[in-house]
Amino acid sequence: MKKGYALLGAALCIAIAMGCDGKGGSGEASKTSANASSLGEAGMWLPFNEGMALAAKENKHVVIDFYTTWCHWCKVMDRETFSNPEVKKYLAENFVTIRINAESTSEKVSYKGEELTPVALARAFGVKRFPSLAYLDRKGELVTILSGFYPAKTFLPLLQYMLKECYKQQMTFEEFMKKKGECDTTAAI
Known about the structure:
four-stranded mixed sheet, 7 helices
């Protein structure tokens, strides 16, 4: 991870971050991601390959929600954050949203010319806890992974920080918040 991205990770430690580390839960892991749309509003979440193609076509950033069926905080994030009208609107206008069951081994996704199962993709991205959110830039490059629950009041500014690409300016999320959502980025939005 580049130095600027490390600043992002360190700054985000101040946010409320709870998650499932795979050591608890009911153990009732679904082996498919067909029920991904049942977590949250149908239509908000796209399958990986479809979402990546749309992001490339529309030149949009990507948010990937890696979840498991047994993860309590995944369900809380869905109920309290992703269902928030402001968050839903901001995501729909500015990002392509993808949801992946990180325990699925029965399907394949294509990333950077490789065919992977969602389990392998989660490992490749360094996902260790759930929920984990991967942020990809307009080129489909992984910017960072954030694990744990984020309430809407924290998540919306995180999305703005990522969209404005403030991390490229070596600005931490904490600095972004102190500047009331402004950064000195020269990237086109």
